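hey
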């Protein structure tokens, strides 16, 4: 098991790269030590365009683990083509097996999650009694509850659970993720900043609403 961030570029690509640059300017460590899955299903680039995009991302020090949504074959120098997060092709085929699923549990953090800390709990919900600082990360297989401010990164539903939610008392995140959907601070607007909110997935998009 490993953590990866999914990026889904959109046309026009120059505008999307400008948004990415703005996110990196706001949080220079946003993708530090993060593997990235590039989802180009909505972009449908030609092989030459895909090579250019990979070069642009590499110049920004993003590590591309693999490419989803691309049509085969890909140029040999590009990262591998993925389907459902797994490499495809004869070199990667292996016998099928059944995986034992761990029992669901919950994890409670009595204090705050400080900058640079990473809390990973794939078996269930995570509750943080304090705050999640900027530069910190919480990743849960289930839902995430933050009773203080959420200023860092929060990724819920990491165990392929699109029904997972994120709750926080003060909404100031750097990045949000549910299942394989991700939104950065620049995509969230400012109208709910500082409020108590809930975040969930609906129809392939991340929704955010104030807690009444």
């Amino acid at each position: 098991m490993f953590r990866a961030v999914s990026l889904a570029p959109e046309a026009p690509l120059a505008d999307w790269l400008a948004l990415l640059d703005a996110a990196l300017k706001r949080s220079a460590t946003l993708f530090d030590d993060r593997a990235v899955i590039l989802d180009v299903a909505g972009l449908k680039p030609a092989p030459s365009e895909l090579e250019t995009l990979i070069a642009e991302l590499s110049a920004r020090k993003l590590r591309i683990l693999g490419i989803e949504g691309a049509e085969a074959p890909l140029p040999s120098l590009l990262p591998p083509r993925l389907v459902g997060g797994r490499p495809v092709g004869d070199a990667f085929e292996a016998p099928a097996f059944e995986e034992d699923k761990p029992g669901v549990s919950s994890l409670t953090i009595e204090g705050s999650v400080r900058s640079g800390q990473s809390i990973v709990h794939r078996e269930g919900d995570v509750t943080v009694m304090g705050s999640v600082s900027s530069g910190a990360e919480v990743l849960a297989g289930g839902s995430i509850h933050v009773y203080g401010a959420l200023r860092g990164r929060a990724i819920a539903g990491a165990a392929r659970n699109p029904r997972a939610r994120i709750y926080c008392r003060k909404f100031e995140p750097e990045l949000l993720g549910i299942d394989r959907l991700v939104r950065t601070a620049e995509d969230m607007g400012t109208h709910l900043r500082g409020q108590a909110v809930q975040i969930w997935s609906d129809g392939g998009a991340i929704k955010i609403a104030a807690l009444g």
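The helical segments are 13-26, 47-59. The two ends are 37 Å apart (CA to CA).
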